[in-house]
Specification:
- There is one protein chain.
- It contains 14 helices and 27 strands.
- The protein is of the alpha/beta class.
- The strands form seven sheets. The chain has a seven-stranded mixed β-sheet with strand order 12-25-26-27-23-24-13. Strands 21-18-19-20-14-17-22 form a seven-stranded mixed β-sheet, with no helix packed on it.
- Helix 2 crosses helix 11 and helix 7 (211-222) packs across helix 8.
- The chain is elongated, with a radius of gyration of 31 Å.
- The structure holds one RNA strand of 74 nucleotides.
Length: 559
RNA sequence: UGGGGGAUCGUCUAACGGUAGGACAGCUGACUCUGGAUCAGUAGGUCGGGGUUCGAAUCCCUGUCCCCCAGCCA
């Protein structure tokens, strides 16, 4: 608490509430996902806000599953969501809660409202109910069932619970005002009859509470002080407050809304996400190109980077389009400090070093991570035949090209200075097929004895020691900056056809032989990569998390 | 159209009547055994129009644009 608190408007409100003595038992918040889908970056921000506010004020944050709709929810999602929250690094105040834990209390409260004449059983069909609601500009009309006696309503509500009526035939509605300009106040539905088995309560219920009826009361039951949610619930706040008042609830939670964000070149709406998965545009909910937490995890994004990204976004009531570069930056910032380095050649070109005897192996020591001396050293084998990346050689180099070309020198990272002596090309295509070169024997470790400056340093691998690996390169899933704004019909056309490039046979240094799924590395001069769970007996599979910044290719692109 | 919200560098975000600042992205340069990292520098903004004030991003009036709401989803 000695650290300066964030200055966003939610922190200001909570500070005021605390000063006014409104939270005698401390600040309590909650993250309330519906277990009907996978968490994504948007949820990550909500999680950071919910947990962050609680932590900043020395309070608690709970994880509560808003499981009021058994037709769309299931235990698999519950497990996946809880795993994702913990993976991000947050520890919910035990135990994990469920709105379904409060079904009985909620029902008793509904009965109380019925008795007070504040709720009634309505027999309008879904269609008729819609017709009675009016429109944006016209008031609604009262339901013909609006003025039943409290006794009759109680009897009917109990019968609804008992399962005496068919699904959809009746609802319990709050009796508020069918002419209210806020549509949510036009006698909203509190209970609907659903003949569905619930993942926790089984077949115990045949009526299920609506979000509006359940949410605020669940907050109240749990002693939540600040119920943080996104902007689209703003109009619901009047109803949230109406229920608390109608029930005479004393310790009132306060709903505060903040803005979601959009990520450029990405989609986060549940519907569009579902679409790209179901249309087979990606390989599943954990596809590394998706902004789902499962996808980001598989891609190799460290959770700390995701949290740092979210925290850097700020909390406001303004809609925003966050550039993907922001996420990339957070990932690089984290990985630069923590990822062990490795040499990997994605597009190999063989070089025979004529002044190194066949069969001889020389070993070089180099840092695991120059940014982290504590990470120690690693050993690299060097021999007569090596691979370098094709991009590091040019027959006719442009100005300022610091890499290898006929007759020039370059440093092989941590090993020797190499000169290119001879180039073999395919006579029919002109393509370079093999290089011959020689090393400066007085440059062992990479430092020439005469102190001459070598501008370029490239990565390499001893051909005899290199490990084959599959490498998957990812680009944004969408070419359009704002695919969320495209029509569903055009969504497929907005997909980037080159979002995935698979390199079947790349080479990595032998130290990676035992790398386990999830481990992250920086392939020097190339980017950050993580071991994919597809790795196995057939070999290693790497996902590119994000490339390194590359001012050379930018310069080339500029011309 | 009724109601509820929102407009500050390209992007995100500060400034709460007193010098419009930071971050990301961009550009320059320095340094470098990663053309990475790091460091230094640079460019770039208050939605429009009125008004109040010594002074307005901030207060008032007015206009414009954008988002959300007509599920027995959350």
């Amino acid at each position: 608490m000695s650290e300066p608190l964030s200055t966003d408007f939610i922190h200001e409100i909570v500070t005021e509430d605390l000063a006014a003595g409104k939270c005698p038992d401390g600040v309590v918040t909650r993250f309330p996902p519906e277990p009907n889908g996978y968490l994504h970056l948007g949820h990550a921000k909500a999680i950071c806000v919910d947990f962050g506010v609680a932590t900043d004020f020395g309070g608690r944050c709970r994880l509560r599953f808003d499981d009021t709709n058994p037709t769309r929810e299931n235990q698999d999602y519950v497990d996946a969501i809880e795993r994702d929250v913990r993976w991000l690094g947050f520890e919910p105040d035990a135990p994990v809660r469920f709105t379904s834990d409060y079904f009985e209390q909620l029902f008793q409260w509904a009965l109380a409202l019925v008795d007070r004449g504040r709720a009634y059983v309505c027999e309008l069909s879904a269609e008729d109910l819609r017709l009675h609601r009016g429109s944006l500009s016209e008031p609604g009309r009262d339901s013909p069932w609006r003025d039943r006696s409290a006794d009759e309503n109680r009897r009917l509500l109990l019968a609804m619970r008992a399962g005496d009526f068919p699904e959809g035939s009746r609802t319990l509605r709050a009796k508020i005002d069918m002419a209210a300009p806020n549509l949510h106040l036009r006698d909203p539905v509190m209970y609907r009859i659903l003949r569905a088995s619930h993942h926790r309560t089984g077949d115990a219920w045949s009526v299920y509470p609506s979000y509006d009826w359940a949410h605020g009361q669940s907050d109240a039951i749990e002693g939540v002080t600040h119920s943080l949610c996104t902007l689209e619930f703003e109009d619901h706040r009047a109803l949230y407050d109406w229920f608390l008042t109608a029930l005479d609830i004393e310790r009132r939670p306060r709903q505060i809304e903040f803005a979601r964000f959009n990520l450029s070149h990405s989609v986060m709406s549940k519907r569009k996400l579902k679409r790209v998965v179901e249309e087979g545009l990606v390989r599943g909910w954990d596809d590394p190109r998706l902004p789902t937490l499962a996808g980001l995890r598989r891609r190799g994004c460290p959770p700390e980077a995701i949290v740092s990204f979210c925290e850097g976004l700020g909390v406001t009531r303004r809609e925003s389009m966050v550039e993907l570069a922001r996420l990339d930056h957070a990932v690089r910032e984290r990985l630069n400090l923590t990822a062990p380095r490795a040499l990997a050649v994605l597009d190999p070109l063989k070089v025979v070093i004529d002044n190194v005897p066949e069969g001889e192996v020389r070993w070089f020591e180099t840092a695991v991570n120059p940014e982290d001396p504590a990470a120690g050293m690693r050993r690299l084998p060097f021999s007569r035949e090596i691979y370098i990346d094709r991009a590091d050689f040019m027959l006719e180099p442009p100005p300022k090209y610091h890499r290898l070309s006929p007759g020039t020198e370059v440093r092989l990272r941590s090993a020797y200075i190499l000169r290119c002596d001879h180039v073999e090309t395919d006579p029919s295509t002109g393509a370079v097929t093999l290089l011959h070169g020689s090393i400066d024997p007085d440059s062992s470790g990479g430092q020439p004895a005469d102190g001459r400056k070598i501008k370029g340093t490239i990565h390499w691998l001893s051909a005899a020691h290199a490990l084959p690996a599959e490498v998957r390169l990812y680009e944004p899933l969408f070419t359009a900056a704002d695919p969320e704004a495209t029509d569903d019909a055009d969504l497929l056309a907005a997909v980037n056809p080159e979002s995935l490039t698979v390199i079947e046979r790349a080479w990595v240094e032998p130290n990676l032989a035992d790398a386990a799924p999830g481990e992250r590395f920086q392939f020097e001069r190339v980017g950050y990569f993580a071991v994919d769970p597809d790795s196995g007996a057939d070999g290693l599979v790497f996902n590119r998390i994000v490339g390194l910044r590359d001012s050379w290719s930018k310069a080339v692109a500029r011309g």
